[in-house]
Amino acid sequence: MLYPAEKIDVSRCHGCGLCAMVCPVYQQGGNVMRTPHGLAKASQRDPELVREDVFACVLCGACAPLCPQDIDLMQMLIAMRSAFSHEPLPAGEQGKSADQKGRVVFVADRALLADEEQLDKVMDLLGHEKAVLASDQGDDISEAMQSGRQVNFDRLHQFLTTLQPVKKIIISDGLLQSVIRSKLPQISMQSLGQLLSSQQAFRRKLKASDFYMMDSQSYHADYQNMLAYYDALYCETECQLSRDLHRLAIPTGAHAKNGFDSKAQIDWLLQGRKVKRIVVESLADYHLLTKHCEQPVSYISELLP
Ligand code: SF4
Ligand code: SF4
Question: Tens of pLDDT along 149-205?
Fold first, then answer.
């Protein structure tokens, strides 16, 4: 994942429309031009045609596991956005890799890095893994991918170099998770949501009346494993999961840039459900849900002692 836009072969799209079927942006607006199908077809004619539509995508990743042509759709969407940016990501300061050799490191998402109290709580919970905060969080790279700025490939290389000697990565940033998984497949990696929700103390507190909001980017970054993992979580706790009929994770739109109605998305997500509490894996989702929902919302760490 992460190549310049011109290296992505959009001509492989044969227009099956599977990506549109699960795209929340398409479900809201009905505009096929804002789906990978429409974007791939338009850019085959003239890449300029996708300039506005590509920023409607909320980067939830739901389309990525479905493409029968095996086009890396997240890569395609990120590269298309950055192709219109004239603001490249500056080379950042390289973190030290020596101190991380053989360690378990935690790469936090930007919302968590901005919340010192929650970050401290999460680091305490990762104590049993003897995890340390990664020396380079790569949050500037994540921000660039999210916002559509050009990613500086030297900077990306710096970031990945610091992670090469580690034993295991725990991560709460789903976009960076996709990148690291594709570039450093030999390193064991687990999402923060999976790690915390696998603890028995957590599972004992999760009830059938809870709505468990998965982080869609993390879920789709490791789709096959996550399918089985969340099936098991459901069987054990009977909690309600934020999955659709295709067993893809439904996003809130917390990362929306352009025109996505998050309030309508959340209303639709909870429509017809009997929910006493919402438990979320992503702090960005937590902020959005507390703004729009009547039910109490708990960040995943709050269910653990
Ligand atoms: S799923 Fe893949 S092949 Fe099918 S329309 Fe979407 S991008 Fe094209
Ligand atoms: S990442 Fe999500 S919002 Fe973007 S095109 Fe794919 S399904 Fe639609």
Answer: 888 888 899 999 999 999 999 999 999 999 999 889 999 999 999 999 999 999 999
Task: Ligand 2, residue 62: give the atom nearest the CA.
Answer: 7
CATH fold for the domain made of 98-191:
Rossmann fold (3.40.50)
pLDDT tens-digit readout, 196-231? 999 999 999 999 999 999 999 999 999 999 999 999
User: Would the CA dihedral through 176, 179, 182, 187 be positive or negative?
Assistant: negative
Q: How far is the CA of 52 from the centre of ligand 1 (A)?
A: 20
- Cα 174 from Cα 142, distance rounded (Å): 9
Q: Whose Cα sits closest to atom 2 in ligand 2?
A: 60
Q: At what angle do helices 283-292 and 262-270 cross, to 10 degrees?
A: 80
| Distance, CA of 226 to CA of 257 (rounded, Å) | 27
Q: Which CATH number fits domain 195-303: 2.30.29, 2.60.40, 1.10.3470, 3.40.50?
A: 3.40.50
The verdict on the CB of residue 32 being under 6 Å from ligand 1 is no
